[in-house]
């Protein structure tokens, strides 16, 4: 099977972190940035790193961008270049295009261009931190939509030794435990007979209201 290839346009803090994580996951990554110093710093860390203007169609064609599986537009403050680069990736036939937005208006413009996903790094991180501050057992929080999320919660003492059937999150709270992290490894799609232990990490998916109800009841029991 052909190894998936990614092009990351904009190697600032957000773009470089995505590019480096994709490299760590053993994917091929082309990084593009106008800043020679940034590209020089990243050249030994990525499959390829080039100094280029991503708003120039001929430049992107010469780099073979149309052959990449996914394009990530991670440009920061330059909204015009962000939008032009996004248009070019779509026009060149890159199958999946993800773009960073720095404002709601910017995000709406990107959505109208047909990007597959708009990412709001600062907003999303703020949401995560806020939820973690007010929910003691919450370790991570990913918003799937306005109403649904995936969360990681540390198993409290009151659930220690209980099976998933006993906890019965689906019937009682309308959310599902889809994975368990423990020191011995991760259990994907655990069965009703799997027990949780204090300190395990539960991965739940469900509506925000149902997850909040689950958290409130668990904390109340704790």
UniProtKB/TrEMBL annotation:
Residues 136-220 form the RCK C-terminal domain. PROSITE patterns: RCK_C, RCK_N. GO terms for biological process: potassium ion transport. Pfam families: TrkA_C (PF02080), TrkA_N (PF02254). Residues 3-119 form the RCK N-terminal domain. One of its GO terms (molecular function) is monoatomic cation transmembrane transporter activity. Coiled coil: none annotated. Gene3D superfamilies: NAD(P)-binding Rossmann-like Domain, Regulator of K+ conductance, C-terminal domain. This is Potassium uptake system protein.
């Amino acid at each position: 099977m052909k190894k998936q290839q990614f092009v990351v346009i904009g190697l600032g803090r957000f773009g470089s972190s995505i590019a480096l994580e994709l490299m760590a996951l053993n994917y091929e990554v082309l990084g593009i940035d106008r800043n020679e110093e940034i590209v020089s710093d990243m050249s030994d860390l990525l499959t390829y790193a080039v100094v280029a203007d991503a708003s120039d169609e001929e430049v992107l064609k010469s780099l073979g961008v149309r052959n990449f599986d996914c394009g990530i537009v991670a440009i920061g403050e330059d909204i015009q270049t962000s939008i032009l680069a996004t248009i070019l990736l779509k026009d060149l036939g890159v199958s999946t295009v993800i773009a960073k937005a720095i404002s709601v208006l910017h995000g709406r413009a990107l959505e109208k261009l047909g990007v597959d996903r708009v990412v709001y790094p600062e907003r999303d991180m703020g949401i995560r931190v806020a939820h973690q501050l007010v929910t003691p057992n919450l370790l991570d929080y990913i918003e799937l939509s306005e109403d649904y999320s995936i969360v990681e919660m540390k198993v409290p003492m009151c659930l220690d030794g209980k099976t998933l059937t006993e906890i019965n999150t689906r019937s009682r709270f309308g959310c599902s435990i889809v994975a368990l992290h423990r020191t011995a490894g991760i259990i994907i799609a655990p069965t009703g007979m799997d027990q949780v232990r204090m300190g395990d990490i539960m991965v739940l998916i469900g509506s925000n209201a149902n997850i909040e109800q689950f958290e409130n009841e668990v904390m109340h029991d704790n």
